[in-house]
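Summary for the steering committee. One of the milestones for this cycle was to obtain a three-dimensional model of the protein with zinc ion bound, which we needed before selecting residues for the alanine scan. The sequence and ligand used are listed below.
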Amino acid sequence: MNATSADIETLERLQTVDLELLRTRKELEELPQRAVIAAAQEKRAALQAKMDQIKVLRKETGRKLTRSNEEDASLVKKEHGIQAALEAAQGDYRNVEARTKELAGIEKRRFKLKEELAELKKDQSRIDKLASQISDGIKKLDATEEAATASFEERSGALTASIAALEQERGQLTSEVPARLLEAYDRVLSRAGGVAIGRLADNRCGVCRAPIESGRLIDLRNQAPIGECPICKRLLVIGGPAQA
Ligand SMILES: [Zn+2]
């Protein structure tokens, strides 16, 4: 394939730019912050779900507390009523006995209620502690995500700018190469990916490293200054003025 030494130099610069583009795009694609952000979001969603359950539990416990307190208040009122009735019933033995029994029943219930209330208050403080732990966890995840996002934006911004500069450089270089050479280069690049052009050195392809046997070597040298590796089909620079 015909090519001037300037064409070969431009193609090789294009190759360098294309490899750098590939590397930069891959780095952008695989920025580790993406995984950090996704993991933080996933963990936060799990904690948020737990927090929702805790809120339901806290409401339930609060309702139970209110109910028990209300029952106790109504029992106190009842107690006062019975005590007043007891005072009025002095001498009426049966009445006094019945009222006294009633009072004892109320006392028993109030004692039970007191125990229940103490348990509920313990539950409530356990729930509050758990809620505050979860809330701290969520705050930490928020901070992790925020830091990872800031770092991602910074790095991805820099990489995106590099890609734009490389693409511009690629555009400039491709405008300097004859169309048929560029077509051959682009064809190999899209087929092989990464490296499209190498040099013949020590009778080996500089890309796939395969040794080229003498019969094929003669064919290859006939294609100078640019031939095609018989093994990997990449473009090979053969001798000529571009080969230092
Ligand atoms: Zn090869």
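Key point for the committee: The CA atoms of residues 136 and 142 lie 10 Å apart.
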